[in-house]
Each structure stands twice: as C-alpha cells, then as structure tokens.
Amino acid sequence: MHHSIELMDVHVRFENVPVLQGVHIEAKPYEFVSVIGANGAGKSTLLGSIVGLVPVRNGKVLLDDIDVTNFLPEEMVARGVSLVPEGRQMFTNMSVWENLLLGA
Fold first, then answer.
1. Distant-in-sequence, close-in-space partners of 55: CB < 8 Å, separation ≥ 6
2. How would you write the pLDDT of the chain (104 residues) with one tens digit per residue?
3. The domain spanning residue 67 has which CATH number?
4. What is the domain range of residue 12?
C-alpha cells in the first residue's frame, strides 16, 4: 500500500509550549522524505502527530487527500499507517519484519 501524506500548517503544543509551528511536508507515493534535526527539535512529535499519538492543535494531516487530523492511532493503523519506534520498544528476539507485522 503506497500513500500520499501531507501536513498543512501543523501546530502542536505541549501545555503552553509550542513544539511544531506551521509545518508543511508532502510525501507522494514512492517518494522518500527525511526529517533531520537536533535532539528536541520536534522530529518524534512530528511523527506522532501523523499517526495520532500527539494531538494537532491547528492545521491538517491528509492521507491520500483525506483529512485524518487527530484520528486515533488504531484508525491510522487500519488505514495502513504505523510508527516504528527508534531502538527501544522493539522485540529484540524478533526480526524487523516481524516487529512491523506485530505493529500492524
């Protein structure tokens, strides 16, 4: 399954602290997009906002041109979108593929 994902003017706050401000990213099917930045720059927050783990305060998250802003994580998984955590929270006795299947 290959999706397009677009974030339009996405804003995320934790309490009163702005973490993401006006983020716009577009990834079309078969494209690779990288997000780089220092620790604390908001990379994990950005990914969490896409998969429904972090609420979007303003803006939109579009999946195949459908507004999925603030969908629950289980709704995003049902649409074929999931997040593989970095390093930790993985089952080390399982392959990467097995971890991905378990997450789906």
1. 12, 49, 70
2. 789 999 999 999 998 899 999 999 999 999 999 999 999 899 999 999 999 999 999 999 999 999 999 999 999 999 999 887 766 666 778 888 887 787 66
3. 3.40.50.300
4. 5-103
